[in-house]
Amino acid sequence: MAKEYDLVILGGGTGGYVAAIRAAQLGLKTAIVEKEKLGGTCLHKGCIPSKVLLRSAEVYATTKRGDEFGVQIEGVSLNFSKVQERKEKIIGQLHNGVQYLMKKGKIDIYEGTGRILGPSIFSPLPGTISVEMNNGTENEMLIPKNVIIATGSRPNPLNFPIDRQYVLTSDEALEMEYLPKSILIVGGGVIGVEWASMLADFDVDVTILEYEDRILRTEDKEISKEMQRLFKKKKINIYTGAKVLPETLRKDDGVSIQAEINGEVRSFHAEKLLVTVGRKANIEGIGLENTAIQIDKGVIKTNDFYQTKETHMYAIGDVIGGLQLAHVASHEGIIAVEHIAGLKPQPLDYSLVSTCIYSQPEVAKVGLTEEEAKEQGYKVKIGKFSFRSIGKALIFGESDGFVKMVVDEETDDLLGVHMIGPHVTELISEAGLARVLDATPWEISQTIHPHPSLSEVIGEAALAVDGNALHG
Length: 472
What we know:
Blueprint: E1 3-10, H1 14-25, E2 30-34, H2 40-44, H3 47-64, H4 80-104, E3 108-116, E4 129-133, E5 140-149, E6 153-155, E7 167-168, H5 170-173, E8 182-186, H6 190-201, E9 205-209, H7 221-233, E10 237-239, E11 242-251, E12 255-261, E13 264-270, E14 272-275, E15 279-281, E16 295-296, E17 299-300, E18 313-315, H8 326-340, E19 354-357, E20 362-367, H9 370-375, E21 380-386, H10 391-396, E22 402-408, E23 414-421, H11 424-436, H12 441-445, H13 456-464
Parallel strand pairs: 1-2, 1-5, 2-3, 5-18, 7-14, 8-9, 8-14, 9-10
Antiparallel strand pairs: 3-4, 4-5, 6-15, 11-12, 12-13, 16-17, 19-20, 20-23, 21-22, 22-23
Helix pairs in contact: 1-8, 3-4, 3-6
């Protein structure tokens, strides 16, 4: 027997389950269809597990530096199986929390693969969901008034043969039972940099092969340059302008591959190869062909409220491209649900979204880079301040990096803030709030930052915009 709902969400990842919670708050009878586990990529294959491993790597690397802090530790060693056990424990705890939230909101969960049907005996409009249940029972038929597609994305292997043993994506890398002695990482973007940092701190010999002229191509140039400098201090090998040739891949006592660099073909060898060259939207096999939904460049097209061409069907998160981030998907889901409920939400201003890279050192930003601001015609002034002059950074033993503010010279508007250094993924929220409130650097400088704290670097960078930094 078909079941009716106000809203059915395809995908129970961060965007999907947050949308479901908001829908339940608004009194909508809601269901989620999830083929794997609630929490999706972020909880099980992305944000959470990778950051658990990064934290263990940070603790290990810091412990080896114990003498710098007057802490004498003999025979420091790494038990990677314990690292993986901790990862699974944290995932399990958070997964239980998501399941509790679903019960609290009286949200129905269907464990299976959902497929959108066209007009049928169930509805004159496309949108009925046929769920192929994981337990092998008869398909469930769901008749929703509205649908949100939140099926997420998966690693893009390009032309590499992912075999789970020698050639991996981040999905397979998270399940490694032991650490390799060496690894080649194809791609120097966010995922590649996080893995490079983690594995280097775990004493793995790391080589990055990046096609662009610098790693972290989407970051401010000065941030990329500083990361490259600090990675070299970690003994990470970085080759930019490297066109990797997948057809040259050989698997014999590890992995061998060639890359063209500055017109010269060079050979590389390591125990494993990790492919981190972006992600692909999961839009196949969910019945989009039975609808009028439009696809452009591999992602679903929507309006500012995430409506598709089928106005009762919405799409959020990685399936619509843009900023493929869990916190973005969550906010897109909230906006979509509130639009369904007739609350007239404001469209999301993506220039106000903070982004983070959880490597060592960390990187965070909000707004325009210096290059982007100039390309858009702004005449800019820059405020920059180093962590080397911040007492708390010296206390931590992590004084590399800086904060950089990009400001409109004519209006004094804050256009962007860029950070590299200790715990900047926590510090960036102050800059994000400043952008939301349209604060000027002077207003930021009037915030009394506690001493000693890492946050002092933000106040000093704001003063530096007009040459008034006090400690540098």
